[in-house]
Each structure stands twice: as C-alpha cells, then as structure tokens.
C-alpha cells in the first residue's frame, strides 16, 4: 500500500486470530476472463501493494461451467507453488459449493450439502491450492431453502429435507481439529442462518463462524436491513462481494446499456448474467444515478462505490474482482478516497428512491 495508508488496513476476522487486509482479492475471473499468466501478474501485484487476503471457491471461475469447474483454485495453487515462502504471508479463503442449483457437475447434481461432502470438498481444495491449510473455509450458499441470488421472498412451498446445520458444523469442526482449516465462514446467508450457526456452535462446542460473505454495494444494501445488526451483535465479520455491482457502478454501461459489447465486462459478455439481479433494468437505472453523483462531486464512479464499502462500519473486508493490473491499482487506490457527509446523505437519498434493485 502507499505510505499514507491508514493504520487500520488489517482487521481481525470475527473472534478468530486471523488478521486479514481490508481489501480482499477476489479470483472468480481467473480461468475465464483472465488467463493464467495474467492471473499470476494480478496476484503478484496485489501482494506488492499489500493486499494479502485472497478469496476463491471450488465453483470458480464464473460463469460456472463443467469444463472449468475448480480451475481457479488450481491456478492459485500453481502460482503459490512457484513462490516458495509466500503462502504464510497470505490469508487464503475458499468455499465449498452448496446444493447443485442446476449445475449437474457438482456432486452429481445433489440437492444437499452433507458433512461428508464438506470434508471431501475441502480435501480436494487443499490439493488444488497446494497448501496444507485453508485459513477461511466457507459454505458458498446454504443447503436449506432460502431466498438468494436475486430471489427476494422466502417460499415455504420449496422446503425439502437437507442436512441439518449441526451436522455441517460437526464436519467443519473435524477439519478445524485436524488442522486443515483455521476458521470457518458462510456466504449468501440470512440473519436466521447466522444466528443458528452461532447458537449451535456455542451449544455444542463447535467452531464459531468468523465471517459472512454477502453482496454489498450501492445497488444492493440488503445487508443493512437486519443482517448488519446480527453481524454486529454476534461479532461476525462481513466480507462484501460485488462492491461494483458487476460493473454497473464503474459507469461502463451508463451510455449504451448492457448490450454495449464494446466494453469488456461480464454483464456484456455473458448472456446468462444479464438475466441475473445485476442485469435488471432498475439496477442499471439506479447505478446511473450513483455514477452521476460521483462525477458531480469529482469522483470516478469506481471511487465512489468502493469508498462507500471501504469506509462502512459494517464491512470488515471488501472483495474486489479485476481482470487487469490497471483495474487492481484503481481499486486499491480508492482506499484513500474520503466521502463527505454531504455525499453520504445523497447516497442515502438515492437509495430511498431506488431501494436495493440488485437484491
């Protein structure tokens, strides 16, 4: 980081001893939009700039595909193997995929995530990452019926038997006890889910979740509607993903919309992603307002969106996903961008009119 980086650039994750950087390098583009050589260059530059918290998943790269499933972890593993001594400087996080959700290459299209599934997936991730321990091991999405990935309402009609949270925690506890995992986390979780994981851990002497990785961006602040209180009171750290709203908050789509394939970005490149929450017309409409607010106050849209996450008391670490070193530098440089009370008030005003369109 630059010499004027604030002293609080490291943060303790939950109640653990893990000290992670407040910016986390997300790697979901590695192996799809980003080739292996470029991925190495990006990771090298991140470490050079002081970002030593990396997040990946067995599911990556995105968009998901059977052909590339687990490729991102393998790329990171080869990068680590070529850099002896670097591993101990990093906080390395990965995730076990939840139920298949139509992806038939995940555990033969299983609609569940059993304790044995968690153990087997962790062993495979350790091999791909070429490491003896995963610092933060997360459940990518819940096995139970929950509204997520753009679904807004809980539907009791979709209930079906799945592995209980207690059994999943027992499996995670085995991995921690064996020294293969240092801390555990959740992703795409609800307030109830966090409470239940914490309650059962404390009741049965099992590992306590340290983190929750959920979307948090100007166009999706659903965390602020109850999960923020849960995280604060239970001392669980928020890892904010998609802070740029899949590119909506960079301004790249402001002029021509999501069909502007002259601007490289996931929403323009992949038709399946246009159909997701980030591709909603009202999400783009809200993003255009935030992007104009940034320009009106002398910021770039990227600076405004990232500074909002970086300086939020709710966020422990912000996950940035990039496709080039130039993007990486721009995102890291935004750490030093302050936001005035006036700008924050304008952000809240826009949110009042356009409430979380990418939820």
UniProtKB/TrEMBL annotation:
Residues 22-350 form the NADP-dependent oxidoreductase domain. Coiled coil: none annotated. CDD domains: AKR_Tas-like (cd19094). Keywords: Oxidoreductase. It comes from the Bacteria. PANTHER family: NAD(P)-LINKED OXIDOREDUCTASE SUPERFAMILY PROTEIN, NADH-SPECIFIC METHYLGLYOXAL REDUCTASE-RELATED. This is Aldo/keto reductase. It comes from Aquincola tertiaricarbonis.
